[in-house]
């Protein structure tokens, strides 16, 4: 029982740090504004991640393209990794590190937004996608852990969760992502 309580408390502790971080709260507000502005101008939101972060990326894209709380028009949001034929072909032909960068080059336009989730901030395929995004006028939003990793320098907006524990980081990514989705939805109805 104590082990269960300690895991729950660890999650609460990280979220308490988020709640008390005024800079992070302001950044959430800024990202909401950037996304709403991009959507109003015809931009699209794309998400990428690996493993559990890929699941979280897909989850957040679905909150926008489906619906979160409100009945509304679908918003143009998509997770990069949902096309397995593309992923396996590009990984086979160019290497796994190129899978997201090639999509950035092929389908994103200036004014679109790329959201990358990586608990370390060092996932090579996301780093390369962010490098490509920066070179092509795409806004980058990074979700990482404590250090921010390589993505720290490549993110226009960085949510580096104050933890080095992967499950606690991912829990906080979903929290921040849900807040963003809810506020974007409220402003896009």
TrEMBL record:
It comes from the Bacteria. Pathway: Carbohydrate biosynthesis; D-glycero-D-manno-heptose 7-phosphate biosynthesis; D-glycero-alpha-D-manno-heptose 7-phosphate and D-glycero-beta-D-manno-heptose 7-phosphate from sedoheptulose 7-phosphate: step 1/1. Catalyzes the isomerization of sedoheptulose 7-phosphate in D-glycero-D-manno-heptose 7-phosphate. It is an enzyme of class 5 (isomerase). One of its GO terms (biological process) is carbohydrate metabolic process. The lineage of its organism: Bacteria, Pseudomonadati, Bacteroidota, Chitinophagia, Chitinophagales. The keyword Repeat does not apply. Substrate binds at residues 50-52, 63, 92-93, 118-120, 123, 170. It comes from Paraflavisolibacter caeni. InterPro entries: GmhA/DiaA, Phosphoheptose_Isoase, SIS_dom, SIS_dom_sf, SIS_GmhA/DiaA_subfam. This is Phosphoheptose isomerase. Binds 1 zinc ion per subunit. Its EC number is 5.3.1.28.
């Amino acid at each position: 029982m104590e082990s269960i309580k300690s895991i729950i408390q660890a999650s609460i502790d990280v979220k308490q740090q988020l709640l008390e971080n005024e800079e992070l709260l302001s950044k959430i507000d800024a990202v909401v504004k950037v996304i709403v502005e991009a959507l109003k101008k015809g931009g699209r939101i794309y998400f990428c991640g690996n493993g559990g972060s890929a699941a979280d990326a897909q989850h957040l894209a679905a909150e926008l393209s489906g619906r979160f709380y409100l009945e509304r028009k679908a918003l143009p949001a998509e997770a990069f990794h949902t096309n397995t034929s593309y992923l396996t072909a590009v990984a086979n032909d160019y290497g796994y590190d190129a899978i997201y960068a090639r999509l950035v080059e092929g389908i994103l336009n200036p004014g679109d937004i790329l959201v990358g989730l990586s608990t370390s901030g060092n996932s090579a395929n996301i780093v390369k996608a962010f490098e490509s995004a920066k070179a092509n006028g795409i806004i980058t939003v990074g979700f990482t852990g404590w250090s921010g990793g390589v993505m720290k320098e490549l993110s226009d907006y960085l949510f580096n969760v104050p933890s080095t524990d992967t499950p606690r980081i991912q829990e906080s990514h979903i929290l921040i992502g849900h807040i963003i989705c809810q506020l974007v939805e409220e402003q896009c109805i």
